[in-house]
Amino acid sequence: MSDLEQISLELEARGYRVTPSRRAVIAAILARKNHFAADELAKRCRGAGRATVFRTIRLLSDLGVVCRVLMDDGSPRYLVSRSGHHHHLVCTECGTVQDLDQCAVSGALREIADASGYEIEGHWLELYGRCAACRARTAVLA
Amino acid sequence: MSDLEQISLELEARGYRVTPSRRAVIAAILARKNHFAADELAKRCRGAGRATVFRTIRLLSDLGVVCRVLMDDGSPRYLVSRSGHHHHLVCTECGTVQDLDQCAVSGALREIADASGYEIEGHWLELYGRCAACRARTAVLA
DNA sequence: GCCGAGTTGATACTAGGTCTCAACTGAGAC
DNA sequence: GTCTCAGTTGAGACCTAGTATCAACTCGGC
Ligand SMILES: [Zn+2]
Ligand SMILES: [Zn+2]
Ligand SMILES: [Zn+2]
Ligand SMILES: [Zn+2]
After folding, report:
1. Quick check: B112 and A123 CB within 8 A?
2. Which residue range forms the structural domain that includes residue B51?
3. Are B3 and B60 in contact (CB under 8 A)?
4. Digit-coded pLDDT (tens) for B22-51
5. What is this structure's pTM?
6. Closest nucleotide (CA of B52 to C1')?
7. CB-based contact (8 Å) between A110 and chain B?
8. Which of the listed residues B80, B105, B129 is the one where a domain comes to its end?
9. Domain count, chain A
């Protein structure tokens, strides 16, 4: 079963219609090799208007099919999500985004909750750095 | 020495002029008890235009005098910063922001760097939850 | 075939900024 | 004092990343 069919079933299971517009957006997303900007997808995606592209991205985001990454300049990008709760490691040089399956803060949360009196419900974490490839490239030049 | 003077000296030390506009923005920031939106400050702050308010906030942010907090709905707010590197605990109910002096991820970074091959340069972390006061309020109603 | 909820897209609108550029300021050089 | 010029300002245009509106359309179920 293709990813498109898989996601379509997921949508139907949740009571959403699988329309041609939604198919077009999902196909466009699956076609992107790396992360993409919503507006860029909207321009590239014939078969769905801008509003529908944004709506569909949000829908898929709520379903956990795509995830949002905040780049280091603050601009949002989207990515097909491969797992449940996870965070990202973003290369500040080439923009590569790597999924981190482990959550780096889950251990500390209990402690913070105790110390602060807060009941912690969620968190947002992004890590920025230079990927192995970019580091290697600079090392050669130096 | 007042906070305003303190910050002014900081600016001068870095080669920036301490102008009436900047003083007005800084005073307006210091007058806010809690976090504020940049646009709201611009409206409230007679004595500096919108662009200058935004520029000054960015300047102070670069200097570490104010910090930016991403609320759980994604909207940015600013806060007078009291320490160096730190993160925030944001109450999703009343909006209270509490500084966390400890960095919850510093310990995990070495490990992640080793596993990923990235040289980690920075990170962004926000925690969301319900503060003690809001929890108490709900408990009474229940 | 009809109904009504779900969906769509053009367009307007919003938040949160940045850019432009001519005018202004003010600290230091003379 | 006054010249000078980099730093600063503000009005307004512009930009990105969306959301709101609303009339039109679609389609599964009866
Ligand atoms: Zn890279
Ligand atoms: Zn996590
Ligand atoms: Zn609270
Ligand atoms: Zn940290």
Report:
1. no
2. 3-80
3. no
4. 999 999 999 998 999 999 999 999 889 999
5. 0.90
6. D9
7. no
8. B80
9. 2
